[in-house]
Amino acid sequence: MAIAATLPYIALKLAWLSGSQLGIPEGSRLRESGPLLQAVNGVTVLMDVALVVLVLALTRPWGRRIPSWLLLVPAGVASGLLTPILTAFPTQRLLRLLGAGTDPAAAAAPREPFLDDWVFTVVYTGFSVQALALAGLFVPYARERWGHLWRRRTGMSGGPRALAVAAAVGALVAAGTQIHWALGGTAGLTPALAADRTTDTAIVGTVHALCALAAAAGALLLAFGWARSARTPLALAWVGGAEALSWGGWLFLAALIPGSDPAKEATATLQLTYAGQMITGVLAAAVLTRFLTARRTG
Fold it and tell me: Could you identify which of 81, 186, 245, 298 might form a hypothetical disulfide with 194, taking C-beta atoms 3.0 to 4.6 angstroms apart as the criterion?
C-alpha cells in the first residue's frame, strides 16, 4: 500500500521533469520551469524512491541486518515530513466541508494561480496513505528490534538535561510565534505575508507548534526521568523532533531562496522561527539518541 501510494506523486513529478504542465494552470509561476525548480522536483522524486526502499527494508529479512542509524535517519525524515500532512490536510478538508475553513476576505481577493486543486487532493491523499502505512510497518519493526530499550526507566544526568532544557526554550519561542500567527497576529510579517495568511496556514502553523512542544516534552521526560516508561517520551521526541527538524530545516532553506515578489520575502522573524524549530528537533534527537545509546550499552 505504501509503495502504491507513491506512484501518483512520482508520476506527476516525472511528467513535470519531462516538460509537461499537467495540473499547472495558466499564469502559474511554476510554468517558468528553471534549473532550481527542476532540481527540487528531482530531489523530491528521489525522496519518494527512498521511501520505497525504506518500506522494503521494513518488510524484508535483509532489513534486519541494516545498521540502526542507516534505517532510523530516513525513517525519521519520512516521519517528520509526513506528520503535518497526515494531521493538517484532513483537518483542512473537514473544516471546508463544514464551511468553517473558508476565509471570506481571502476568497474574494484575486489569487495568483499555482496548482490545480486536484493536484493537492491526489498528492496529499497519497502522502496520508504513505504515513499510515509507514507507521503500521515501522512500529512493529521497532518494537521487535529495539523494544527491550523501551522498558527501561527514563532519566539521565549532565549533558542530556542541558540539551533538553535548551530544546524546551527553543520550542517555546518557535511555538509561541507560530501560535501568534495562527491566531491572526501579524508581528514579524510583511503586509503581503500577513495578507496571505488563511485558515489553512493557521492549521499548519498550529501543527508545527504542537510538534515542537511535543519534541521538547519528550526530551525533558527522557532526560529528567519524569516518566516510568520510556514509550510515551520516546514517541513524543521521535514524532515531534522529526517534524520540527525536517520541516524547520526545509522551510528555513526555502526561505533563503529569493522569490519573485520582494514584498513576500521571508522576514528575519520567519527565518528565526524556522531555525528555532530545526534546532529544537536537533536537540530532541540528540537527547533521544543519548538515551537509546546509553541503554543499549548498559
Answer: 186
Residues 6+ apart with CB under 8 A from 144: none
97-105, long-range: CB within 8 Å, 24+ apart, which pairs? 100/199, 101/199, 101/200, 102/199, 103/198, 103/199
**Within 10 Å of residue 133's Cβ, how many Cβ atoms?**
19
Query: What tens digit of pLDDT does each residue of 29-74 get?
Result: 787 767 878 888 899 999 999 999 999 999 999 988 999 989 999 9
Domain housing 93: 1-150
Residues 55, 200 within the same domain:
no
pLDDT of 77-109, one tens digit each?
A: 999 999 999 999 999 888 888 877 655 444 445
| Domain edge (last residue) among 98, 131, 150 | 150
Q: Indicate the number of domains in the chain.
A: 2
- Please state, in angstroms and rounded to a whole number, the distance separating the CA atoms of residues 55 and 255: 31
User: Which grid coordinates are listed for 284?
Assistant: 530532541
Residues 18 and 139 in one domain: yes
- Whether pTM > 0.85 for this model: the answer is yes
